[in-house]
Each structure stands twice: as C-alpha cells, then as structure tokens.
C-alpha cells in the first residue's frame, strides 16, 4: 500500500515539474516577442491629453442637457391636459353621484343668514 502511494506521488511530482518547465519556456518565448513591441510603444510619440478641454466640454454638455430637460419639462407643464383616464374617472364618479341622488331625497338645511348649506339625505322610510 505504501509503495503504491509512493509511486503515485513520485509520478505526480515528475509530471508537475515537467509541466512547470514547459510553461516557463512558453512564457520566456512570449516575453522575448513582447519586449520588442514594448520598446516600440515607448518610443512612439503620443499626443498629450488636454484635461482642461475635456472638463470644459463635459461642463458644456451638462449645461446643454440641463437646458433641454428644463425646456421639455416646461413644455409638458404647459400642454398638460386631463388625460382620458382622469376624464373617465370623473364621469364614473359623477354618474355614481347622480344614481345615489336619484335614489335618495336630499334636504337642504340653511342657517338663518343663509351663508352655509348642508345637504343630508333624508332617512329612508321604514316599513
């Protein structure tokens, strides 16, 4: 039993060493190929980035977007008309109110000075 474990572990160690050495050879070959391209990239001239220009452009764009959003919002507020659902809800409520008023009699109570009026339905007749 010990011998089989020892042989398996030794085979495993040999394979890992062989695989690691192949990986090192591949990495060295790639690094040799990349080193020449890295030198070329460092030597090439790159235009400097103007950070102030980028910031000014972003600020101008933000101001423009804000003005556009405000104009759309103001336009929406001016054109706001009752929607179909609002009109339908009002129609439904008014029809319900008319139905209730037609079924119950309404009595108007007024004060002596006539300023305030309270509408109360009369009590239904009992049998």
Architecture blueprint of SSEs:
Blueprint: H1 2-43, H2 51-78, H3 84-103, E1 106-110, E2 117-121
Antiparallel strand pairs: 1-2
Radius of gyration: 44 Å
Number of helices: 3
| Mean residue pLDDT | 75
Distance between the termini: 105 Å
Largest sheet: 2 strands, antiparallel
Order the strands across the largest sheet as they lie in space: 1-2
Residue share in β-strands:
5-15%
* Uncertain spans: none
Question: How would you describe this protein?
Answer:
The chain has three helices and two strands; from the N terminus they run H-H-H-E-E. With 127 residues, it is mostly helical. A two-stranded antiparallel sheet has the order 1-2. Strand 1 (106-110) and strand 2 (117-121) form a beta hairpin. The radius of gyration is 44 Å and the shape is elongated. The termini are far apart.
Descriptors:
single chain; 127 residues; two-stranded antiparallel ribbon; 3 helices; 2 strands; 71% helix
In short:
This protein is mostly helical and 127 residues long.
């Amino acid at each position: 039993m010990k011998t089989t474990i020892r042989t398996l572990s030794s085979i495993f160690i040999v394979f890992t060493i062989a695989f690691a050495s192949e990986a090192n050879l591949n990495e060295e070959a790639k690094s040799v190929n990349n080193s020449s391209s890295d030198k070329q990239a460092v030597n090439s001239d790159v235009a400097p980035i103007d950070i102030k220009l980028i910031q000014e452009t972003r600020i101008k764009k933000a101001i423009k977007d804000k003005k556009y959003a405000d104009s759309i919002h103001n336009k929406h507020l001016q054109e706001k008309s009752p929607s179909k659902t609002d009109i339908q809800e009002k129609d439904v409520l008014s029809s319900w109110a008319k139905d209730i008023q037609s079924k119950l009699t309404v009595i108007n109570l007024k004060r002596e000075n006539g300023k305030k009026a309270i509408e109360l339905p009369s009590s239904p007749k009992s049998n």
